[in-house]
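cron nightly-structures :: item 1 of 1
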Amino acid sequence: MKKVFRNISNLSDGFKVEFINKNRISKKKNHFVRSILLILFISNFVVAQEITAELETFKKSIAEETKLNYGKAVELMESIYTKNKDDYLINFRLGWLKFQTKQYAESIKYYNIAIKISENSVEALLAITYPLEKLSKWDELVDAYDSILEKNEENYAATKQLGIIYFNRKNYRKSKGYFEDLIINYPSDYYANIYLGWNYLNLGSKSNAENYFSTVLLFYPDDESAMDGLKLSR
């Protein structure tokens, strides 16, 4: 039976060196592991504190917004912005609050940052259309709606608004195309039918115009625009 060494003094010199070296390496490894664990603990603690601070700030900001104190709601969000410039939700909220305070250029700035952070966000593209419209930035507005349709080709709001924009530009053929897309999914929709009626009338197709104006009057019997269009179509 082999003798079991119970004391380092029983080891040969070669084994003593090997044993001591392995013991030192083991201690270094343990120290390294403890250091890593400490760093991870501290990092997680800091992150947890930051998340808690962010949640608290959102809570307070929303409370101020509920009381219509938009200025205070903005100040609260701006207080955590420096450390969170790449946070989508913070930029999105600041875009909304700046819009509420009629700071439309600032609203556009924050919405654009949110769009860059989350390139697939349809909500940020929809949101930016409001301050763009307020500042009459029509070309940028069209670009925003086009971007929405690239991501969601059946988006109701973007399709409808582009149809209206091109109608107001008297580009009736292009406007008609958008409302024809819209009416596929929304056959009884007021905007799709009323604008198709006026588009067809302006394009010289009275019979088609009459059909769409008649559809509007089925659901909205007193609609003046549909009644006027129907008279002109006959």
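cron nightly-structures :: done
The CA atoms of residues 11 and 17 lie 9 Å apart.
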